[in-house]
Fold this protein.
Amino acid sequence: MNLSSMNLTDRDVPMIIQRAFRNKERKCFGLNLRDNALTSNGIKTLVDSIIKLHINIRYICLSDNSNVGDEGVEHLIRLLQTVRSLTFLAIPNTGITDRAVRMLADVLCNDMNKNPMCSPLEKLYISFNKSITDDSLGAVQQIIEQSRTLKVFSVQHCSFSNKARRQLQQSGTKSKRKRFSLSE
């Protein structure tokens, strides 16, 4: 369901859930909520509803909702740990920081033997978050090198130094299974 650029706010999330998922005759496998005014509160409502209703969602795009932040990622982490169908997550320009990248690395790089509920995420886009800095270098490298399911990972236009960028390029070159995007 494409609901991009519709000036949606957190107050609209219950209506989105109602329209997209409560009608059993209608199959909605993805939400494009790009370029709206959602915050972490709206993401919490969305995640809680998806989990409660046992929705098999595959695709979520929250790009350009600049107030999602790390708290919103915490809710999305819960979704990744619970819903086994989510394979695409786009959170560019959502106000996330190094803390969110660390949380994502922790959930995406779990040992499948120790935690069989490891996320099946295949595509992750976190570009255009200027508060992602060199402090995330270790977490980004961990995602590139250790995530078993991720095939596409984009961290373009974040605030990495040239030195960190070179290190990430080397990590990306080593990982033959993933398409890794990094640029200024």
Remarks:
- The chain is about 40% helix and 10% strand.
